[in-house]
Write a structure and sequence with these properties.
heterodimer; A: about 500 residues; alpha+beta; Alpha-Beta Plaits; 4-stranded antiparallel beta sheet; two-stranded antiparallel ribbon; B: about 350 residues; alpha/beta; Rossmann fold; 2 domains; 10-stranded mixed beta sheet; two-stranded antiparallel sheet; 12 strands; about 20% strand
């Protein structure tokens, strides 16, 4: 099941290649992300994306009724972590029976709280949401779907997906699902919703785990095998559905349970499968289960949540003040909003990068500041933009609406400028390669020199790509930027002041 | 299989597991796990291998190719060296011009691979005068197939758009497929497909990077559009081969005309069929610009003579288009077409 969703995700990744798929839309997985939906609404202050993110609201509704089932069954990054878990030796996989970790966890359970590390994700959720209010989009580490999509871009290049690799290495040495338990803000959001819902309509849950405490032998195998470290099937005293926010209804406890019929995976009250009781019952040396009090509710206090919102606000202020002027233009795709708005709207999912038929869009590195990390920009030297032929494919696949569709006749990406000191035509050579490339008739020959018609130039960059000099003597500059040679030199000088 | 809620066990419905069965189950699980690990390891190593091979690509793989030799044979008795056909039906005059040279069988032998270098760079219909007329290309492809060519590859490096779009817009792709040829369109991102080539006879152009099809072909035919060119003066049969190279830097950095002649010593076309049905008079090579309907097709195994004759259609001589003169100097052909036997049909 999980593998099927991963396969579907990967198929969609391939289908994001040009021409973009329409049904199912290749960005459908990304639009399943309610966190991205909230981000788009908060960061871009754009309510129209609400409709665009309809799958996310369906998921949120199902989560409200049920559990964090998305994390255990659907999430492609989670599946990768499970694959890591499959190759890890059992001894270091999850929770060593009787280990320090388990003991601490159970001790906390008796107090009705969770170990601190389980609360980090809620704090991170609050921080990234607060940052989103300030127009800062940190989705590329807050949402596993975006992380996965961006990583797939690098994997397919093939290049080393740094973030993905770091996560996998941590999963290898620490715990397979550490990200989902402790960091994932999307997981935190889903956990909050599932907790809120479980209190109300346990019977309506599309997927949940049911415990029959009559049959339970209190051995702790369920807790040992839970990838998310949920102790509830072990410590729950009365029969009924599990209500822990972190339970993803993945069923690991059901297959681990040695007691026949003690645990079951249920859907709308009907049992899908029950524990078989075929494994030998082996008592683990665990502290005796104790009845928890407040544990099933929110695992973060209101004060902590509000405090982290405040922390996010402080961080955001520092981020905006301490970093460079965001209004400086960067050469973006046609239909991209102005710079600060684009930075708020863009999720850095690399969907546009992959769909581009000529490969002129690439994620930026750190060269232009942290806030532009992994944002896609146009590199006309690699390839000129063919917006008129691909029918603006990048805008059609953008899940966040950061690239707005434009008719080819409205497109104005930038403006080409000629460096008269290096241009071959200005030095008396027979060249004019830029002119024969230009499909908008924007370059005229004045003798041997190319002259640019600023009205007709769309900034597609076909001329820059093909210029025979190195570096190019004809370069597309973003609108509003005065040309400087070499390109970007002026901007760097300005910023150093 | 059906999920049965409330049944005591879905997996082992109706029969209690014996210890042997349990053991078998465990063994199978171990096997699946082991297989999974091995498969994962294999996938990972393949991926790492592809990463490594990408790293190797950074260092250019130098594949040297040697210049072609022209396989054209002297004209059979009574046949012309240069054929000029005029008439309103472009396809028909193409066939007439080639027949006047002795037919394509003079150049194409049974089973040969023929490369036709067309002028298909632009997204305009034939009336714009910047791409070879599809009727000319279609006729050439058909005649090569009639002469027994095993493959006829029509190729160009497209300038103003994706290759598929260019070949569709100017009608060449359709004409080629109709007549039994194949299209190889390169675009802006395809420079990596080229192979390095040295030009021993080159005066200013000593090496270049060239698409391999044209080098590996048995027969190379240049089928250009005669048109104005803003830097070379006129774009004709010799100039057409700029479109099979990927390295522009050393062509435009030196004397372009000499570079074109040098390039032609490498490629050595066997036949030139110049389409002058509608000629572009200004703002070439892409236009848009004024056109003139000249209704002419020039064919010759002597690419210099064919270019030299084509200059006259623009009211120029070969002296105005230096690469033609340089081609003569390099021994590629005769610039004074009056010395040749001309057939006007």
């Amino acid at each position: 099941m999980q593998a099927a969703f991963l396969a579907f995700f990967i198929v969609l990744v391939f289908k994001a290649a040009y021409p973009p798929l329409s049904t199912p839309s290749s960005n459908i997985f990304l639009r399943f992300d309610p966190l991205a939906g909230f981000f788009s609404i908060l960061a871009a202050r754009n309510a129209s994306v609400f409709v665009r993110y309809w799958p996310a609201w369906i998921l949120l509704g199902l989560t409200l009724l049920g559990s964090r089932f998305f994390c255990g069954w659907i999430c492609p990054l989670g599946t990768c972590f499970d694959a890591v878990g499959a190759i890890k030796p059992d001894a270091v996989k999850y929770y060593r029976p009787g280990g320090r970790e388990m003991k601490e966890r159970l001790a906390r359970s008796r107090e009705g709280t969770l170990p601190r590390r389980f609360r980090v994700k809620y704090v991170l959720l609050a921080v990234v949401l607060a940052l989103a209010l300030f127009g800062i989009n940190l989705l590329y580490f807050a949402s596993p779907l975006v992380v996965m999509n961006l990583s797939m871009y690098y994997i397919l290049l093939p290049q080393i997906p740094v973030l993905f690799l770091i996560l996998i290495i941590i999963a290898l040495v620490y715990r397979p699902r550490f990200w989902c338990e402790e960091i994932c803000p999307l997981g935190a959001l889903l956990a909050l919703f599932s907790m809120a819902g479980k209190r109300l309509w346990a019977k309506l849950s599309p997927l949940s785990i049911y415990k029959d405490s009559e049959a339970c032998v209190s051995c702790g195998a369920c807790y040992r095998d839970c990838p998310f470290g949920v102790d509830e099937p072990y410590i729950k005293q009365e029969s009924g559905a599990l209500r822990s926010g972190d339970c993803t209804s993945c069923g690991a406890c059901v297959s681990a349970c040695p007691a026949e019929g003690a645990l079951a995976l249920t859907s709308f009250g009907a049992k899908l499968c029950t524990s078989r009781g075929r494994r030998a019952t082996e008592r683990l040396s665990l502290p005796a289960p104790a009845a928890p009090e407040a544990h099933m509710g929110l695992t973060v206090t209101r004060r902590e949540f509000v405090g982290s919102l405040g922390l996010g606000a402080v961080l955001a202020t520092g981020y905006v003040i301490g970093l460079r002027d965001l209004s400086e233009p960067v050469l973006r795709m046609p239909g991209a909003q102005d710079e600060s708005r684009f930075l708020a709207e863009c999720n850095r999912c690399a969907e546009c990068t992959r769909t581009c038929p000529v490969g002129c869009i690439k994620p930026m590195g750190l060269e232009d500041g942290f806030q532009r990390l992994w944002t896609p920009r146009l590199y006309p030297r690699t390839a000129g933009c063919l917006f008129d032929e691909c029918n603006h494919a990048c805008a059609r696949v953008c899940p966040a609406g950061a690239i707005r569709y434009q008719k080819p006749e409205d497109v104005k990406i930038g403006l080409a400028h000629v460096n008269s000191r290096t241009c071959l035509g200005y030095r008396g050579r027979l060249c004019l390669v830029c002119m024969e490339r230009c499909r908008f008739d924007a370059i005229k020959a004045d003798g041997l020199r190319p002259i640019i018609n600023t009205e007709k130039c769309t900034g597609c960059g076909a001329c820059e790509q093909t210029c025979p000099t190195d570096p190019a003597s004809i370069v597309v500059f973003p609108l509003g930027e005065t040309p400087s040679w070499p390109p970007g030199a002026g901007r760097r000088r300005q910023s150093r002041k | 299989m059906k999920w049965e809620p409330e049944s005591e066990s879905f997996f082992m419905k109706g029969n209690d597991p014996t210890p042997e069965a349990l053991l078998r189950e465990v063994e199978r699980r171990d096997f699946v796990k082991k297989a999974g690990r091995i498969t994962g390891g294999l996938v990972l190593s393949v991926y790492l291998g592809s990463l490594a091979s990408c790293a190797r690509k950074v260092a250019p793989v130098v594949k040297r190719v040697t210049p072609r030799t022209s396989g054209a044979v002297p004209p059979p008795a009574g046949q012309a060296d240069l054929a000029v056909a005029t008439g309103p039906n472009t396809g028909e005059i193409t066939r007439k011009a080639m027949d006047a040279l002795g037919g394509t069988s003079r150049f194409v032998k049974q089973g040969n691979v023929v490369v036709v270098k067309a002028n298909a760079s632009f997204l305009d219909p034939p009336s714009a005068g910047n791409s070879t007329n599809p009727e000319v290309i279609g006729q050439v492809v058909r005649m090569c197939r009639e002469a027994g060519a095993s493959r006829v590859i029509v190729m160009d490096h497209c300038l103003r758009g994706l290759p598929d779009a260019c070949f569709a817009a100017n009608g060449i792709g359709d004409a080629v497929k109709r007549n039994g040829g194949e299209v190889v369109g390169y675009g802006a991102g395809d420079n990596g497909h080229g192979v390095d080539a040295e030009i021993p006879a080159g005066v200013v152009l000593k090496n270049t990077n060239i698409y391999p099809e044209v080098i590996n072909a048995d027969v190379v035919i240049t089928v250009p559009k005669a048109k104005h060119h803003s830097s070379a003066g006129l774009s004709l049969g010799m100039k057409n081969f700029i479109g099979v190279t990927t390295r522009m830097s050393n062509i435009h950095n030196v004397d372009l005309h000499q570079a074109i002649a040098d390039l032609n010593t490498l490629v050595r076309a066997d036949l030139s069929v110049i389409d002058a049905s509608i000629i572009l008079l200004d703002n070439g090579p892409g236009g848009p610009g004024p056109t003139r309907t000249a209704n002419t097709v020039i064919a010759s195994p002597d690419i210099v003579a064919a270019d030299s004759y084509a200059c006259t259609l623009f009211g120029l001589t070969a002296e105005d288009v230096p690469y033609v003169v340089y081609g003569n100097r390099a021994g590629l052909g005769e610039v004074d077409f009056n010395k040749l036997k001309i057939a006007r049909v």
